[in-house]
Amino acid sequence: MPALSPFPPGPVLAGLLAALLALPSPAASAPAAAAQQDDVLAATLSGEYALQAGRLGEAADWYLRAARAADGDPALAERAARIALLANDDDLAGDAIRLWKRHAPDSLAMRSAQATWLLRGGRERAARRELEKLLRDPDPDGWRHALAALGSGTRDPAASAQVLGRLVASGAIPDQLQAWLAFGGLAQRFGEPGLAEGIVAEVVERFPDEPRVALLRASQLREAGDADGARAALAAIERQAEVSPELRLAIAAEYDSLGDPSASARIMALGPQDERSYGLRATLLVKAEDRDALAALYAELRDGAGQPDPAGRLLLGQIAEYLERHDDALEWYRSVPGGPQREVARLRATKALHDLGRAEEAYAELRALQTDADVDERLRRDAYLMEAELRAADDDAEGEREAFARGLAAHPDEGALLYARALMWERRDDIPRAEADLRRVLVAEPENVAALNALGYTLADRTNRYAEALELIDRARVAEPDNAAIVDSYGWVLYRLGRHEEALAELLRAWRLMKDPEIGAHIGEVLWTLGRRDEAREYFQKARELDPDNRSLLRALRKTGAEA
């Protein structure tokens, strides 16, 4: 769904530029205008420096000062409001939104932010009025802004669900299928099956012949635990997938969500096939560990592989590799004639050689790629990454370390190599070195979200430097506030800071965004700490079903004693 929190695209200082352009002409009052420009510039830069340090409350305050100095510039007021909302500073957010409203009263973004602020302050009646205005706005994007505000407003899903229920009852949802489907999906995310069922019933009545309604019904039944009912709803529309590629993908995705990737692959086999559908089928069958079906797909593709199609031959190599037909895989990879697939094939060929027990040949080919000035620089870099991966598979710790060292000597401060080496150090429990590599990534790329989150999470999980971890994770949250991995990191550092109830709310939000074993393990540990042990065991079990060997899960089980 549309995210409320991300900042508008463009350079970080785009708001500053707009503010400066809006100032009085220096010809009219040169000293006053110059002073005003200096005030805006100083406050904006201070805000940006605070933001880069992860001090969100301070950053919001500086941006609000900049907006005031720029005569209420809406872009700066918006930035202040969004940062304040992310910092959970309701008072500061209110000041910024009021300033924003004075200068951009008709902005859908402002009204959406205002509804979010009202929800967070527990002013549900006022929030509902704002949401109703957005839903009834003639602008076709009005309902999307209402959806964003409702989805990211209160931290209490039950309260948000109650507001949504009243909006449905009042007839405020526009008579558009897409809007009803979106709000139905939101009800499911809130974990309110009764509300979701009511919305589905309303959608069925309004749009009885629309197959996407059956998809919503299937999703609602799945969330309610009725897998058989969900399958029945999907079966009723399967035939339509043959003539609608979009519907085919949606049905396949729903079967995959049901934990049945084999059925998902079967749906993808309906109708005309292309490179994308073949690739998805292969991926799903690998996920299902259905070797027989994958072998049949391999035979189907092989029989039609007379032409030198690079993508098809690469896919055949990848399927053969999974089926452990390493000779075939090597042959297919060698036969990829050109295009970007050729580079991938050259790397995968070294993996096939390694799997055939010809490790020295594999390493020799990787060395040749690493030193070949005629190949793409990215391929040379990836050859070091592949070598490190194969050395790790050989339990050659020194070889893995040395591959990274040579790679970084050839490609100094290359982010992908540093990031991968940091993960190696973390795996070896060498946290200082992992931190050093991640910080090197951030020196070159201060806004690298993956590195910010990885370093913040590592400090929260493996050290007691929680305040520093929070600053790093907050910087990542500014860039991607609805990224489940980042929300999980935020919840985890709150837990480590002893803010258990806040942590649980964030971790549950991360779980709603993505069902992941590490998130499930974190929720279980927090619930256990709060004394809610039956609920904790439920989440530990959910995490175990996703990945019984997950490192975070195993640590949480040992720490809590729940495995006993």
UniProtKB/TrEMBL annotation:
Pfam families: TPR_15 (PF13429), TPR_16 (PF13432). SUPFAM superfamilies: TPR-like. Residues 1-27 form the signal peptide. InterPro entries: TPR-like_helical_dom_sf, TPR_rpt, Ycf3/AcsC/BcsC/TPR_MFPF. This is Tetratricopeptide repeat protein. TPR repeats lie at residues 517-550. Keywords: Repeat, Signal, TPR repeat. Transmembrane segments: none annotated. It comes from Luteimonas endophytica. It comes from the Bacteria.
